[in-house]
Amino acid sequence: MNEQEKQSRNGDDDLVEETRMLSLGEDEVEEETVEAGETVRRRGIYLLPNLFTTGALFSGFFAIVAAMNGDFDKAAIAIFISMVLDGLDGRVARMTNTQSDFGAEYDSLADMVSFGVAPALVAFSWMLADIGKIGWIAAFIYVAGAALRLARFNTQVGSVDKRWFIGLPSPAAAAIIAGIVWTFSDLSLIEPGYKYALAFIIAAVGVLMVSNVRYNSFKEIDLKGRVPFLTMFVIALIFVVIAYDPAMVLLVIFMGYGFSGPYRAVFKGRQSKG
Description:
Blueprint: H1 3-24, E1 30-35, E2 38-43, H2 47-68, H3 72-95, H4 101-126, H5 133-156, E3 164-166, H6 170-187, H7 192-210, E4 214-216, H8 229-244, H9 246-273
Helix pairs in contact: 2-3, 2-4, 3-4, 3-6, 4-5, 4-6, 5-7, 6-7, 6-9, 8-9
């Protein structure tokens, strides 16, 4: 095939693709899926999992608005609600077999708002703005860490051990920041020392997100399987403890998870050297 024929064929392919897009509609989404070993084109998007993602995105946006209005307790709670909805959208998609590339991209963008931008802006509005450049630099380090963490996660899907996350997951990172804001706000801890401590923590959390430290994903837990009766009683007790002081308990839980990665890395490193 000579060069002229190649250009002609490329032009025909472009014309076919343009015609197909016009018939599809510029505002429509079409994805390829594999069903029974055959490639099938599907129009539109799945409603149910994307509703959960939209809810998570709304909660993240609400957290930003609440922080701008000085309602830091509500802002922190909204971030935790985003975490719950974000955890549900993926599970719902898998349970109903409605996974899609569109859903994955939408979820990633929503995560950037809810777990990247929102926690940083909430912390900045609450305390970091009072310490000048150090405050906004710390907030930016967190935002950049979240963006890089999400981008790396998207490129590693299917190529890493599912039992582990590489780097601190962005929802857990957001929970640490939200827990600090919620707890310290309730206790009215606004002295300068706490502001610099917050700047250090939020920057450190941003670094942990892009680190190579491994965190347990808990994906090996079988939610469909049978468990001992006592397990449900323990779960009920956990809910009671959280309800007693949600801000403090959630902060302790997620701070513990945040420390678990570096602790495991140091502890395992010493064991291997020994």
